[in-house]
């Protein structure tokens, strides 16, 4: 299995300058190129690599690297457009957990990150083979390789031995290493996107003379949008289109464009991409749609071979409103307003709606990318671009799929601490399937998984494009509230009631306000919250009231609900502007609700500068404010850490899994003994139990396991049994040998030909029955679930979920999210033990990709501790996958 794992298809990844490199195992046919790499080195670099300048070393090194595969040895090379740029290798020399590593980079390309990228991939391959430590000898003057080792992010030590340095590198994957890999990936990613979003020259292939064609529309937008760099059309039939010079092919353009927009029929897309790649183009936007599998493969192969970043196919295009660039390569109805929102969408229709909405609100757009079928450039790429572009203050995503959710989550957690990230939680209809099931895979819905990702990453998830725009208006114009306490001020009692209902339903609090806020209001004004200032309130009185409320420490935000009246001129745009000019406006948000407003949300200029959001419905204002309060709470909480766990035997667990899969190559549910062995590797507490194949063995086991009350339970078992209770395979409250014998005979007769034996368990005392489980999602990785257990898990479906690995904050959120949470925190349960159980389950799922599903139900919780009463684990053959390894999809 390990050989299949490591002799995988080539991986493509980005070098430090944004160039795409192919990382693959060295093959015998690479001998001449590998030898050439060494022969072209200067004598000085040869000496640093081999400790002598001998040319004979080149041939020996190529012989070693290109020899047939052998145990304990692995060599990877990096190539760009077929040219080998570097090679890295390790050899255990028979020592299974330690390996000697060596690296060589081609002459003249040092500093581009070739060696570091190779080592990252070699580290992943070594870990998969059980190697825990790399060692390397280097000359003390070889500063480049010593710096490479020091900057990896792995724990490295040095020992000087004369002119040489002995480096020892531990391959543990901790947060420091992931952060270092992430930083290198971010810089490479941003560099690779510059030809796409900061092109010096753009060409449109497929722009025709006929009005209405997509290619012509894109060219028209580029031309009329005022693109400040060079622009070309590619059409062999004409010399000019819309005043833009046209040429017969990309290869004869007077300047090779950084970016080419492809708008040709699907059968011609791959050939066009190949031509662009050969000419030196760095990025493609493919708006063409309808590619079949072969055409899609040809397009992606050309992009990978020639190192072109790809947006699309089947997309609306891209735009960047930087005034020095003014790039609008879309076929939307109009040009986007320059501004602060970065937008990435998969749906072109949603993209048009967001472009229009952000422009209408005046927020505007910094850059826009329609990802389409998302063969390459993804939301993760755009988050990293917006993080560094200096213009984006609000990130908006509409993603229908995730290529690498765990890497996306790490990126989003970092970016969201700097700028808000908003999304539409699309595809919620999957949640229509009832999650009432007693095993984990059935309980984990796609909606639950996606929401776990958004929650952990700090992403603001809305339910519609309209709600996203309402929330964006608040985020853009107002400070975040310090909490969820809202004061409502109105000039009409009915509007105040509607606003109060909306705030309460959104989870906001309406605190009691002090009497002082009613000073100088008209007679008949109503104290409380909402404050009904009556229709007679003047502009000055209403403004003074809001000012006093904003200075009150018990309020985090003010919502002003106004309706037009003929009594006082206190309801127009001028009044809303006036409400934003007093003290406290810069530290607490103020929102307006105007029931007569003809658009869902507007941003009105504030009297003291800035803007104030005005909503047509109080529900919209309350939803936006609730999202703002959630974001403020998320930012206030420090980033979580994955706790260290004692008593974890990862190596032993992998041996248990490997041995079981050798005996059961198709996978399946573990037998009770193997299941218990695996749980013991992670210190998961189980109630005492014994395995019995015969009636006499069951009686003997019961004698040993009886507690103070003398009761035991028998549970039948056979391969594949999941729902024991539902199938009548459990006998409880058994006292004495006679009842045990009777129960065993009954089970054996009932399940004749199926039952392999029984589990004899001590009968648990009084306690709370909980549920904990994990399921490996093919895209999102391991998902940990928690909720009410026993038969209630089937009836109530009271589950919460978080993606592993769980941090200390994640596990707390997981325990407090289900509806059953008051049972845990109001009673004297051993919460620390429960946290440990969930953390150990998370660790087990991350260590063992073959663990497809684990189901602990019930988990018995008491003030004295927790124990698993019934555990089921399913394994499937599965190749290890490192979601943080740098590679393009």
Layout of helices and strands:
Layout: H1 2-6, E1 11-14, E2 20-25, H2 31-39, H3 43-50, H4 56-65, E3 73-80, E4 83-91, E5 98-105, H5 114-128, E6 133-139, H6 143-151, E7 156-161, E8 164-170, H7 175-197, E9 201-205, H8 214-224, E10 230-234, E11 240-241, E12 244-247, E13 259-262, H9 266-279, E14 283-286, H10 293-306, E15 309-311, E16 317-320, E17 327-330, E18 338-345, H11 348-361, E19 365-370, H12 379-388, E20 394-398, H13 405-416, E21 421-424, H14 440-443, H15 446-457, E22 460-462, H16 465-477, E23 486-490, H17 493-505, E24 531-532, H18 539-551, E25 557-562, H19 573-578, E26 590-594, E27 601-605, E28 611-615, H20 618-636, H21 650-663, E29 668-669, H22 672-681, E30 689-692, H23 695-705, E31 711-717, E32 730-735, H24 736-750, E33 757-762, E34 768-777, E35 781-788, H25 792-796, E36 799-803, H26 808-816, H27 821-825, H28 831-847, E37 851-862, E38 865-868, E39 871-875
Parallel strand pairs: 5-6, 9-10, 9-13, 10-12, 13-14, 14-15, 18-19, 18-20, 20-21, 21-22, 23-24, 23-25, 25-26, 26-28
Antiparallel strand pairs: 1-2, 2-3, 3-4, 4-5, 6-8, 7-8, 11-12, 16-17, 16-19, 27-28, 29-39, 30-33, 31-32, 31-33, 34-35, 34-37, 35-36, 37-38, 37-39
């Amino acid at each position: 299995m390990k050989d299949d794992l490591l002799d995988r298809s080539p991986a493509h990844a980005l070098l430090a300058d944004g160039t795409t490199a192919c990382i693959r195992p060295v093959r015998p046919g690479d001998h001449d190129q590998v030898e050439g790499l060494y022969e072209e080195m200067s004598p000085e670099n040869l000496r640093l690599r081999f400790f002598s300048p001998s040319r004979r070393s080149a041939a020996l090194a190529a012989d070693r690297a290109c020899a047939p595969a052998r145990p304990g040895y692995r060599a990877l090379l990096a190539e760009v457009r077929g040219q080998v740029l570097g090679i890295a290798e390790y050899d255990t020399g028979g020592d299974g957990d330690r390996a000697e590593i060596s690296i060589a980079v081609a002459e003249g390309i040092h500093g581009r990150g070739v060696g570091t990228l190779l080592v990252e991939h070699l580290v992943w391959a070594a870990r998969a083979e059980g190697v825990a430590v790399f060692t390397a000898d280097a000359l003390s003057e070889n500063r480049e390789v010593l710096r490479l080792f020091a900057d990896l992010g792995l724990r490295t030590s040095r020992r000087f031995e004369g002119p040489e340095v002995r480096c020892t590198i531990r391959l543990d994957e901790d947060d420091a290493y992931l952060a270092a890999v992430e930083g290198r990936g971010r810089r490479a990613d941003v560099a690779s996107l510059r030809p796409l979003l900061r092109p010096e020259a753009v060409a449109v292939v497929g722009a025709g003379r006929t009005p209405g064609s997509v290619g012509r529309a894109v060219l028209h937008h580029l031309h009329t949008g005022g693109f400040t760099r060079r622009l070309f059309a590619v059409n062999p039939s004409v010399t000019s289109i819309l005043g833009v010079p046209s040429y017969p092919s990309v290869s004869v353009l007077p300047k090779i464009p950084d970016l080419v927009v492809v708008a040709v029929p699907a059968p011609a897309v791959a050939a066009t991409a190949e031509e662009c790649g050969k000419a030196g183009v760095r990025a493609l936007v493919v708006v063409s749609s309808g590619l079949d599998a072969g055409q899609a493969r040809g397009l992606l192969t050309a992009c990978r071979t020639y190192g072109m970043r790809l947006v699309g196919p089947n997309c609306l295009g891209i735009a960047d409103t930087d005034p020095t660039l003014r790039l609008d390569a879309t076929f939307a109805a109009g040009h986007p307003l320059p501004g602060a929102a970065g937008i990435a969408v998969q749906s072109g229709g949603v993209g048009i709606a967001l472009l229009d909405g952000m422009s209408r609100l005046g927020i505007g757009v910094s850059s826009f990318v329609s990802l389409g079928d998302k063969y390459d450039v993804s939301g993760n790429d755009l988050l990293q671009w917006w993080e560094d572009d200096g213009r984006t203050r609000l990130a908006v995503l509409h993603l229908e799929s995730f290529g690498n959710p765990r890497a996306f989550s790490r990126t989003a957690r970092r970016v969201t601490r700097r700028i808000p990230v908003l999304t539409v939680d699309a595809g919620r209809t999957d949640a229509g399937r009832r999650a009432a099931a007693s095993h984990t895979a059935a309980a984990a819905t796609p909606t639950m998984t996606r929401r776990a990702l958004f929650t952990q990453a700090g992403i603001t998830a809305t339910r519609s494009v309209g709600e996203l725009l309402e929330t964006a208006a608040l985020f853009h114009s107002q400070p975040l509230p310090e909490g969820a306490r809202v004061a409502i001020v109105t000039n009409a009692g009915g509007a105040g009631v509607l606003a109060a209902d909306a705030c309460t339903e959104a989870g906001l609090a309406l605190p009691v306000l002090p009497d002082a806020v009613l000073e100088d209001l008209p007679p008949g004004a109503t104290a409380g919250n909402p404050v009904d200032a009556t229709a007679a309130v003047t502009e000055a009185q209403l403004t003074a009231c809001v000012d006093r409320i904003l200075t009150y420490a018990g309020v985090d935000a003010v919502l002003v609900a106004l309706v037009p009246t003929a009594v006082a001129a206190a309801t127009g745009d001028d009044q809303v502007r006036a409400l934003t000019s007093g003290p406290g406006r810069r530290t607490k948000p103020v929102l307006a609700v105007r029931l007569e407003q003809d658009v869902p949300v507007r941003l009105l200029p504030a009297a003291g500068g800035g803007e104030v959001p005005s909503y047509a419905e109080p529900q919209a204002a309350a939803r936006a404010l609730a999202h703002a309060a959630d974001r403020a709470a998320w930012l206030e909480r420090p980033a979580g850490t994955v706790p260290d766990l004692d008593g974890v035997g990862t190596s032993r667990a992998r041996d248990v899994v490997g041995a079981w899969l050798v005996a059961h190559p198709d996978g399946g549910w573990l037998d009770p003994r193997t299941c218990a062995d695996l749980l013991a590797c992670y210190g998961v507490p189980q109630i005492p139990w014994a395995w019995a194949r015969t009636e006499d063995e069951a009686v003997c086991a019961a004698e040993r396991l009886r507690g103070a009350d003398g009761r035991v339970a028998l549970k039948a078992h056979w391969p594949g049994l999941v729902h024991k209770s539902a199938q009548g395979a459990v006998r409880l409250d058994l006292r004495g040998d006679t009842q045990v014998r009777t129960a065993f005979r009954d089970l054996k007769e009932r399940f004749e030909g199926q039952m392999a034996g029984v589990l004899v368990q001590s009968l648990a005392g009084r306690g709370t029955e909980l549920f904990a489980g994990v399921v490996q999602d093919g895209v999102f990785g391991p998902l940990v679930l928690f909720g009410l257990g026993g038969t209630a898990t089937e009836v109530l479906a009271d589950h919460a979920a978080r993606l592993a690995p769980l941090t200390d904050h994640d596990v707390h959120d997981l325990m407090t999210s289900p509806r059953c949470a008051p049972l845990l925190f109001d009673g004297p349960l051993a919460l620390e033990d429960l946290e440990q159980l969930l953390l150990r389950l998370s660790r087990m799922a991350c260590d063992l990709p073959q663990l497809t599903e684990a189901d602990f139900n019930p988990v018995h919780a008491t003030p004295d501790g927790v124990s698993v009463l019934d555990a089921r684990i399913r394994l499937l053959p599965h190749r290890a996958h490192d979601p943080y390894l740098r590679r393009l999809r």
